[in-house]
Design brief:
alpha+beta; Butyryl-Coa Dehydrogenase, subunit A, domain 1; 14 strands; binds flavin-adenine dinucleotide; Butyryl-CoA Dehydrogenase, subunit A, domain 2; single chain; two-stranded antiparallel ribbon; about 10% strand
Length: about 600
Amino acid sequence: MAQLIADRRDIDFLLHEVLNVEQFSRHDRFADFNRKTVDMVVSEARNFAVKEMLPTWKEGDEQGCSFEAGKVTIPESFHRLYQLFNDGEWLSMNEDPEWGGQGMPKSVSSAASEYFNGANFPFMMYPSLTHGAGKLVEEFGTEEQKKTYLKNLYTGKWTGTMLLTEAGAGSDVGALETTARKNPDGTYSITGTKIFISGGDHELAENIVHPVLARIEGAPAGTKGISLFLVPKFRVNPDGTPGAFNDVVCTGIEHKMGIHGSSTCTLTLGGSGQCLGTLLGEENKGMKAMFVMMNEARLLVGMQGFSCATTAYMYAVNYAKERVQGASLVQPNEGGVPIIRHPDVRRQLLTMKSYVEGMRTLLYFVGYCNDMVAVAGDQAVRERYQGLIEILTPLAKGYVTDKAFEVCNHAIQVYGGYGYVEEYPVAQLMRDCRITQIYEGTNGIQAMDLLGRKLGMNKGAVVMDLIGEIKKTLRTAKEIEFLAPHTQKVGAALEKLGAVAQQLGKTAASDRVLYAFAHAYPFLEVTGDVIVAWLLLWRGTVAAQKLGSAKGKDVPFYEGILKSLEFFTTSVLPVTLGKMEAINGANGACVEISEESFNG
Ligand SMILES: Cc1cc2nc3c(=O)[nH]c(=O)nc-3n(C[C@H](O)[C@H](O)[C@H](O)COP(=O)(O)OP(=O)(O)OC[C@H]3O[C@@H](n4cnc5c(N)ncnc54)[C@H](O)[C@@H]3O)c2cc1C
């Protein structure tokens, strides 16, 4: 079976022809990342993903994780892979070299991340969470905490996790019951049980560092009384080596639908009264700190879901070109043809292609915004790009993972019965992808975040900035006559979305708040569609300008980009407009129906 992960030509197009990431090398911070280096990084990531990661993906799924006599065992092959991954310094691509990072622009590392997650996202859970824990230490740690933990995390010598969820505190983190009691030496004794903890226990590294949300005794109820603590599996000796066991006990693991290679643990902290943690950041400001990690994690989860989709799409296209079945409708007597010739299969492939290209552009664009924040000298520019990241985050997580799952579903359909059997890769991709719609804030919670928080950010200025970005593309596209029908459609959809947002915002601020939030998810979906339409138009403007002088394989490549745009504006956007009508109608059936009328 061909080893497919991501579309290199499209990645290059996006990095160099659309986003022009080489521009960042003009700044000291990214001076090393000229075109040659960027290409080398992407090639190295691809080679590593194909040669080392992909071969362990299915094996990891089949072996899964086990729990016996208190010990968590993860797939055998992950141990060597983790070592190689760290040797290649892939864990902290964006971080400061002083702490073991590579100092790379995020737009560029997005490409590497796509390859890695596309090749083996269950494995990537370990280094990704480790990086997230390191980020927390970097942002909120004392000098002592940084010295103890940061390099160990950023180099992968120790792994990291995040401990939020409890049996009674899932989406509502504020309901957590884990407690922290301050000791005379300034440490805290932690007591509680956390569930669903990814990478909570294993023997991949000599220590595991758990950022833990807990409530200091006497602190206020809800999120206002939550603090963040660093709790290592093994306490750290004065010389920096792991020491005594810190009473973090794994009592079991989950048996899941997908990501079998990622251990999902129940952890009991302080069952013997011996679990010590140190405060990370300020008392009762734990949620603020955790949001740093959660926002990074939400973008990562978007990338995880998307990577399943891009891989599934690549497999589906190749399968459709090889699988011969049924005659052509227009040449019925000429025998079987590859299924890619059937219009219904093409419809599915083009649906997948247009979403995949739109989602890739959205995720890399968020990386690009991060790079702009990193290099911009002007504070207003930095704030503008930071706002764009924040408003796009619920879309990059919620919209992208839902559409990614749809893409995986289409891939199974294209494979027919073979898609449903585990011998072929698309079934696992769909199983793995499913969790991305749930963790890091379910997609329902993402929709509420978009409507309830992000739309009104800075009195609507952030939305206006986003609209400004879209209008920039519309202006460029208007110069290209050939794109006129698409430009008009994207412009009209943007207008209508603006009106829907205003009306929904008003409803949310009235006594009909439940009616508004009943439409939060459809609003996330239509907003995502308009964003994808914008990004496909942006790509279309580049492709249209290049097509005239293109040669060889570039000709069908640019034509394909324009077909994605055409398909999206003519087949998807009209449905989106209909969904906007439904939101405007603000039908309240789901609010008004009595609980008894759900005949459960
Ligand atoms: C494989 C896996 C790995 C995980 N890894 C981690 C980890 O590493 N660390 C960690 O801390 N957690 C982790 N989690 C937990 C995960 O983040 C939670 O499962 C998720 O946040 C949802 O919480 P819940 O399962 O309690 O569902 P609930 O909160 O009970 O939600 C159930 C449903 O109700 C909806 N809902 C709940 N509240 C609201 C509301 N206010 N408004 C509208 N709808 C609402 C939700 O959208 C959802 O559809 C993991 C979970 C899994 C399955």
